[in-house]
Please model this.
Amino acid sequence: MISKRLKQVADYINKKDIVVDIGCDHALLDIYLVKEKKLKNIIVSDILQSALDNAIKNIKKYKLEDKITPILSNGLENINISKIDTIIISGMGTKNIIKILRNIGKSKNIKKIVIQSNNDYYYLRTFMKREGFIIKDESVIKDKNINYITMQFIRGKKMYFYSDYMYGPVLKLDKNNLWYFQENLKSLEFINKNIPYTSMQKKYALKKIRVLSKIIKKLNNF
Ligand SMILES: C[S@@+](CC[C@H](N)C(=O)[O-])C[C@H]1O[C@@H](n2cnc3c(N)ncnc32)[C@H](O)[C@@H]1O
Model:
C-alpha cells in the first residue's frame, strides 16, 4: 500500500489517462496506478540516474517492465510529449515545477496536470492560470503531521481572486478543510505577533489574516 500522500495524487488519475510522472524516484505511485487503477502504460522519469535506478528496481520487483517505461530526463526534455495527455509532478517545490512546466500551455495534447507541490501555492496557481489551466479539483490532507495539497489542473478559463490563488478556489469552499484554514490563521497570527516585520511584511500578513478570517467565517456558516 502507498502512503496517504501518494494516494491523494493517485485519486486524480483515471484508467484512460496517458501519463508521464516527472520526478518519479521510487515509482511507487506508478506501480500503484498500474496495479490498482489499471493504467495500461506509464512513463516514469527522473533527473537522477540513482533515483531512476530505484524505480527500475521496484518495477522489476513487481514484474511491470512491459507497462512502466523509465526515462532519464531533466523535466520534459527527453519525453515525447506528443504521445501523452497527463502529467504528474509530486514531491517538488513550486520553483522547480514552474521550470519544468514553462510553456506547457503550448502543448495542446496535454489535458490534465496533477501537482503536489510542497510550497508557494499562490505562485503555482497563478503560473498555471497564465499557461491556460484552471483548477478542476484540489484537496488538502495531513500525512505524518505534514499538510499536503494536490491540485488537478485542466485546460480552461476562469476568473480568480487573490483568495483563490492564495488558498485555493476549491479548497476554500469545502467545510472539511476548516481545520487547514484555522491552522494557517493561527500560525500567521503567531508570526505576526512575535516576529519583527517591516511595515510591508506586516501589511501583507494582515491581508492574509483578513482573507483567512473571511474564508473561515463563510465555512462556519455553511
Ligand atoms: C522528493 S522526490 C519525490 C518523488 C515522488 N514523486 C514522490 O512524490 O514521492 C523528488 C524527485 O524529483 C526529482 N527531480 C527533481 N528535479 C527534477 C527535474 N527537473 N526533472 C526530473 N526529475 C526531477 C528528484 O531527483 C527526486 O527523485
Remarks:
- DSSP finds eight helices and seven strands in the chain.
- The pocket of S-adenosylmethionine is lined by residues 22-25, 45-48, 51, 74-75, 90-92, 96, 100 (CB under 6 Å).
- The CA atoms of residues 95 and 120 lie 8 Å apart.
- The longest strand covers residues 133-143.
